[in-house]
Design a protein that fits this description.
- The chain is mainly alpha-helical and about 150 residues long.
- It has a domain of about 100 residues: Arc Repressor Mutant, subunit A (Orthogonal Bundle).
- The protein contains 6 helices and 4 strands.
- A hairpin with a 5-residue loop joins strand 1 and strand 2.
- The radius of gyration is 17 Å and the shape is elongated.
Length: about 150
């Protein structure tokens, strides 16, 4: 995964963590929290807004918020605008798109390795990452997949 796609994924998670769809989160706050150059992050966030993943609001109280609920945003949607993680995998040796008909010498092995990674991004959502983060930190509570809000048990 490219650095840009990683930044995009981290930014979406940070926006979801800060309230998701309720109040816009300033890009400057996300850039500072994630230690990403502001101008670079602003371009990423604008691309995500164009893709319908984020909503953008201008003005003094503006910023970015999730356009949909965390459980409705698959990780592949967040990284796909920046990386070719689609079903047609790029050849590991740089020979274009790999296929069964015109595969490179390592095509079969590359498909075996890349398929699980693709499935991970295809099947997981922003809500899944929020929940995993919560569990990893050991704090009580769950993430409500419909809102992304943390609820105590």
């Amino acid at each position: 995964m490219s650095r840009t796609a990683g930044y995009a994924l981290n930014a979406v998670i940070e926006i979801a963590r800060r309230g998701g769809g309720r109040d816009p989160v300033p890009a400057s706050g996300v850039a500072e929290e994630l230690d990403i150059p502001f101008s670079y992050l602003a371009k990423i966030l604008k691309s995500l807004a164009h893709e319908g993943i984020l909503r953008s609001e201008r003005g003094r109280t503006g910023g970015f918020s999730l356009a949909r609920q965390p459980a409705e945003i698959r990780l592949i949607e967040v990284v796909a605008p920046f990386d070719a993680l689609g079903r047609e995998r790029e050849c590991l040796l740089g020979r274009g798109t790999c296929s069964e008909l015109g595969g490179c010498p390592v095509h079969r092995e590359w498909c075996e390795v890349s398929a699980p990674a693709f499935r991970f991004f295809e099947e997981r959502t922003v809500a899944d990452l929020l929940q995993a983060e919560r569990v990893t930190r050991g704090a009580p509570g769950t993430v409500d997949g419909s809102t992304g809000d943390i609820e105590s048990r």
